[in-house]
Amino acid sequence: MSSASEGRAVMGGRDRDKEGRARNARPRDGLGRPLPYGDPGVARQPEGVVRRPEDSVVEAQALLDAGKPFHAHEVFEDAWKSGPEGERGLWRGLAQLAVGLTHAARGNVTGGVRLLRRGAGAIEEWAAVDARPHPYGLDLAGVVEWARGLASEVEREALPVDAAARAPRLSSRGAGG
User: Fold this and answer.
1) Confidence tier at 120 by pLDDT (50, 70, 90)
2) Which of the four, 125, 131, 153, 157, has the lowest number of CB atoms within 10 Å?
3) Residues forming a β-bridge with 5
């Protein structure tokens, strides 16, 4: 067993965390693409962080604005996994939007369009049941409109987008909103 990075080890040719679970320790670029071992890469988002929902929104917006939608997806995924059962559809939909933007920025037209539309649908479905238009300051209608518009553009143009320039405004108030 040889040390890889950040408490991870390589066992049997696969990266593992301290508990022995498979975890890829390769460095990644700003869009989450794996880089060769030894490349500096971009700092990874810590996994399994429990945040207040408002803090998840602020942190995800900062990552989106920095052109790191893959990292924002990790924040949304933490909220999805640690939040109340009744909010999982909201956070899962936001995570899908972030992954959709990631794929669109990488030039994966099909994956980008599919996930942007799937995420928009999940958010609309959640909002129809929950009936809160601005939970945690989120502008759900605006986010859904952004996702559908970007999906149509990506489908029509079939070109990679600039993730930072095309980041959504998650909040309906203040900076980043």
Assistant:
1) very high
2) 131
3) none
Q: How does pLDDT run across 24-53, given as a tens digit for each residue?
A: 678 888 888 888 888 888 887 778 889 999
In whole angstroms, give the CA distance from residue 152 to residue 166: 13
d(CA 50, CA 6): 20
**Phi/psi at 169 (nearest 5 deg)?**
-95, 110
The answer to whether residues 44 and 52 touch, using CB atoms and an 8 Å cutoff, is: no
- Distances in Å between the Cα of 156 and the Cα atoms of 15, 98, 151, 153, 160 are 39, 20, 9, 5, 11
Judge whether 130 and 32 are in contact, CB under 8 Å: no
Picking from 142, 46, 156, 50, the residue whose alpha carbon sits closest to that of residue 97 is 142
